[in-house]
Amino acid sequence: MFEFDQYLGFLAFLFILTMGFWLMIFLFALLPYWIGGSLKEFFQEKKEERKKKKL
């Protein structure tokens, strides 16, 4: 079966694999929200600038 060092290597592999999996899910969930919010804020600022210039 497994020797102790093989078992530790397998556990390290599983830990790194699951850590990467959850990081990927976190980034794909957070990045669109972050980009969308910054675009919304950018367009609001541009709209306010145009409004001030108009007056």
TrEMBL record:
It comes from the Bacteria. Keywords: Membrane, Transmembrane, Transmembrane helix. It comes from Salegentibacter echinorum. The chain crosses the membrane at residues 7-35. This is Uncharacterized protein. The keyword Transmembrane applies.
